[in-house]
Amino acid sequence: MADTATPNLIRRADYAPPAFLIDTVALEFDLVPERTVVRNTMRVRRNPDASRAAHLELMGEQLEFVSAAIDGKPFPNAHPHEHGLLLDQVPDSFELTLTSICNPAENTTLSGLYVSSGNFFTQCEAEGFRRITYFLDRPDVMASFTVTLRASKADYPVLLSNGNLLEQGELPDGRHFARWEDPFRKPSYLFALVAGKLVALEERVKTGSGKEKLLQVWVEPHDLDKTRHAMDSLIHSIRWDEQRFGLELDLDRFMIVAVSDFNMGAMENKGLNIFNTKYVLANPETATDTDFSNIEAVVGHEYFHNWTGNRVTCRDWFQLSLKEGLTVFRDQEFSADMAGGATDEAARATKRIEDVRVLRQMQFAEDAGPMAHPVRPESYVEINNFYTMTVYEKGSEVVRMYQTLFGRDGFRNGLDLYFKRHDGQAVTCDDFRHALADANGRDLAQFERWYSQAGTPRVSVRTRYDAAQQRYSVTLRQGYGDAVPAARETQKGPLLIPFAIGLIGKDGRDLPLQLDGEAKSSESTTRVLEFTQTEQTFTFVNVGQEPLPSLLRNFSAPVIVEYDYTGEQLAFLLAHDSDPFNRWEAGQRLATRELLALAARAATGAALQFDDSVVAAFARVLTDETLSPAFRELALMLPSEAYLAEQMAESNPAAVHAARQFVRKRLANALRDDWLKVYEQHRTPGAYETTPEAAGHRALKNLALSYLTELDDSADAVRLAAAQYETANNMTDRAAALSALLNAAAPQGGSPEAQHALDDFYRRFEKEPLVIDKWFALQATQRGGARHPVIDTVRKLMTHPAFNLKNPNRARSLIFSFCAANPAQFHAADGSGYAFWAEQVIALDALNPQVAARLARSLELWRRFTPALRDSMRAALEKVAAQVKSRDVREIVEKALA
């Protein structure tokens, strides 16, 4: 990594330590929206571990240079340029003072220092700090920061920064100041400041060692009543990290601040986490069960970064998964423990299923496209484009495999050693792997390939039963199938794959497991096989009957399993498998197989038929009261249209939509009485509760409602949905009812009930931006029909007074929802969806390249679609490539077209 401006392509192999180090930073801000003056005083010295440089090169973007001084004297050899500041002939150790000016009011990129709703906020990860002041803006330069903020007291009564508040006071001319000190060295990407008219919910808690800490959740005054859940989630996170990993809050205070204009979900700045309001604000009237769950997870994620990301950080941005993959794993474990503790396997499995659904639908697709890259990328053009599902979600699965191999205690021992070795350092994924290996006495050299190989591995399985010898052999073979070029180029050999397996007898019970060569059978009925070769056979002995294998239990590795189960076998697993994840997986495989066969017929215009045995399998799950409502809801939810289209040799969204709608109608009509019974049984009268149990009842009830509105005669279901809308005492039920009404009426272009609910919803919540985001999203994702395309609704909503393209949440709620979550309508045969996409990417690129780049990825898999759709997509991509200017978007579209 060079100290200078970002070149066209950054390579991991080119990393070099910085020529200079910065030990301390004292920042002074005079905050004025259009002209903020920043004075930056740094203690700088040459790095003894780097080659000697002739000059010091600092990064800087969109800054007005004012002055430079070294050791208190003006320094004439400072030369500002477009990407930074060059300082010639500097001494080996010196104090450098720089003064510069930035314009937060005009910063629509929301990177660096910007203004939102009249308040100041920052976002510095990955390279936003260089928009605030000239600096060595790279993660391996760690310094201690002192920050002084000065501003109008009337306009900005609250002044916050990282760490602990040292002093505050009055200044002349109605201004005031606050001085903050962060006692822990950190890279510049973890810097934060906030200034504005905010109020806080406060709590004081004691940590495990008895130290008192101040917790604050800062919001705009009208949102204070929506902060309780975020505060509770923070307290739960603190307690969990102490109990599970022995990690204690290390600052006197911990602050969360909510802002409505934010590119990401949240940011883990040391002690001053800045959050998108979407992941802070919640009460029963405005937030769904999913919102409550997401807030708990994201609050946990950012708090857990305090150790896995802040106390130990990344050496360079190629190591991003070092902090993100590890912390996603930690927030997933936290959420599972909050739902079911360490012992309720069914509740934990529900969380596991939800996480794997996201991984397979989004990350597996990423692996199959032009943006495919390893968990630790080898190169990039724009680092903002590598905050990807691969780095986060696949990175989390890589961390989970350590725990699968070593168990909870072994994983904890490895994490303890990691902190003992590297606290206060900027390190690499290899450093983490070495700590886990050394703590557990294992050689993990082969495991490194999980970090360096792109693509989704495929494991094909063959089985053989020898009745005479009572031996059951399982042969595993690993490879990558038809991997994309980016994936093929990185493959170096077989992976170490922890492959969990169980054997199920004819009575539906697990069989004891004894591998050939073992003295006795294991007490556990699940065995983790360490699969390390391209092909490897494992033989179980004393198997008295031919079993049915339960493969990759709990999704023990991020791979695709290829095994030719019959429909009857999948139905048997759906009914009997003791592993909750594989029970769900059997139903998904069964549904996917049927749906893909139907889509193939729909593509040719052939008549559609649905096997009665599959209907019977779903009926058993629907009526099985021994299963939790949350699990039944997940098991009865059909695979998404996007996921199904990706499984086709040539994606055909219209055929997939036709097939899926046919199956939904078939299940609705065949199980009508059961759906009605379930709807009535799982009502949740009384006050709203956020418990996982109550949420599970609501989820199953609302799934039943969505199926009932598919009935051939849906008049009764529409009345049921309308009544639920009118009487709902929570947003989960109200939004579900509105969705049911919209989709029931979509093919006809609407209904009086749907329009009444839409209008009422807007009137009720027009002062609640996050709820109006739902209003936009529900309309963008409604089913639509040939005579009533959703694109017409979306274009009309673009002109609505409440729509604002500059706000990322609002843009995502309408534009992203349509392009990413309504495939049948977005991929319309006339290409209207692609034309709309191109317009919006170009418009967003001029405002906010990070948001534009995320939207640009909607077409990255264009080569996998039918020829007519491919031609339209390519034309849209070429239009964008010809007009956009940012590195962010250019990297995406150029890779897609390459």
Automatic annotation (TrEMBL):
Family label: Belongs to the peptidase M1 family.
Cofactor entry: Zn(2+)
Species, as recorded: Paraburkholderia tuberum
GO molecular function, one term: zinc ion binding
Lineage: Bacteria, Pseudomonadati, Pseudomonadota, Betaproteobacteria, Burkholderiales
GO biological process per UniProt: proteolysis
CDD domains linked to this entry: M1_APN
All residue ranges annotated as the Peptidase M1 membrane alanine aminopeptidase domain in the record: 230-450
Pfam families tied to this protein: DUF3458 (PF11940), DUF3458_C (PF17432), Peptidase_M1 (PF01433), Peptidase_M1_N (PF17900)
UniProt KW keywords: Aminopeptidase, Hydrolase, Metal-binding, Metalloprotease, Protease, Zinc
Ranges where the Peptidase M1 alanyl aminopeptidase C-terminal domain occurs: 568-898
Listed name of the protein: Aminopeptidase N
Reactions catalysed: Release of an N-terminal amino acid, Xaa-|-Yaa- from a peptide, amide or arylamide. Xaa is preferably Ala, but may be most amino acids including Pro (slow action). When a terminal hydrophobic residue is followed by a prolyl residue, the two may be released as an intact Xaa-Pro dipeptide
